[in-house]
Amino acid sequence: MGATVISNEHALDGGPGPLGATYGKLMMWFFILSDALTFSGFLASYGFSRFKYIETWPIADEVFNHFPFAHGVNAPMYYVALMTFILIFSSVTMVLAVDAGHHMKKNKVAVYMALTIVGGFIFLGSQAWEWKNFIKGEYGAVETKGGSILQFVKKGADGEYERVALADFALTLPEDREQLNRNNGFWFMSEATIPSHSINEVVQGFKADESILVRTEIITAEKEKTVLSREESLKRLAETKYVVEGANLVRNEYGSKLFANFFFFITGFHGFHVFTGVMINIIIFFNILLGTYEKRKSYEMVEKVGLYWHFVDLVWVFVFTFFYLV
Amino acid sequence: MAQAHESHTGRIWKVFIILSIITIVEVLFGIFKPKSLYFNNFMGMTLLNWLFIILTIVKAYYITWAFMHMEGENKWLRRSVVWTVVFLILYLCFIILIEGAYVFDIYKTGHIKWNF
User: Which of residues 143 through 172 in chain A touch B, CB cutoff 8 A?
Assistant: First the structure.
């Protein structure tokens, strides 16, 4: 009887596994594979809704047009492009860390790893700022009984229509209602934040200012949103129900309700990946400082978190395309 | 594991420059939106969108091959990861996007009014 001899030589270093890679690296690849399919599911369902509402979907350039310290400037794309650069650059420092690891240069690996972590934090901060703008909203809109969003425009000096914020024309009528909070009125009852203007204030303000028109969600052949005439505008305003300011998971001032939902879920899920990536990077960073990999004579752990970090960058490249460009 | 440990820094910076240039090109196209690309369709999508998607795939190729070092991996490791993702995603997009366009048609031509 021939006994099966099991060698324990590689019990702790994970290798060599099949396909010429260590088990750890192999499993990281297959984790990435499954995660990639999760993100594809998200992005494909975004595509589904895009095609389903192809005539009414919000135009990304009009929604994401903020840039820090440039108030009121229409700057589509620049900010997300900047975020893309931050993430690509932190990918570069990561791959430089892996490269230094191959040469067992502990200090170099540590420095590049630290830079990668800083890049990750900057990206997370940028995303938080993006979310803040999205949630806060800029102009406000009203929602009809049928669930469509009406926005307000005015002819600018150059003959083009420009957006008008509710605060610019809504009247202040003596009809203020107190916000119901858990600590006043009925005990333990509260309600969603009351918008800063009521429907009546918006409609009366609209009637008082002749220059303002309603803009619907419908996209014209020129790929712009439809602007209604004064009479049509008044007709549409007669059937409005809510004042919408900013965005949440129920309704948003940009248009299709799914638009905000996908924004929160896809960029949120990606941001969560970046956050976990930064946390794992920090753990690996301390292990480098402690000399763990020096003792192990292999910096493969850096390579494995590197794979994850690059994957996060890879996903952002796709989110950038499908959310902001397409 | 078997790869030689020579330094790749030159290639890393080259790939960084390629990725940056592609991103800048994408942003420029996104801002100026040339009419010939923006108003012409191919298979239900504007030429501009096709351009963005192709450039994105080029970027994905460089990130996976150079940064994630897929080019140095075993041939079948590479194929088992890349082929799985590529074919499943193509199938998913094919089936879901066609369904989305179909639902749009149903809403457009149907008798039930929605989102009015």
Answer: 144, 146-148
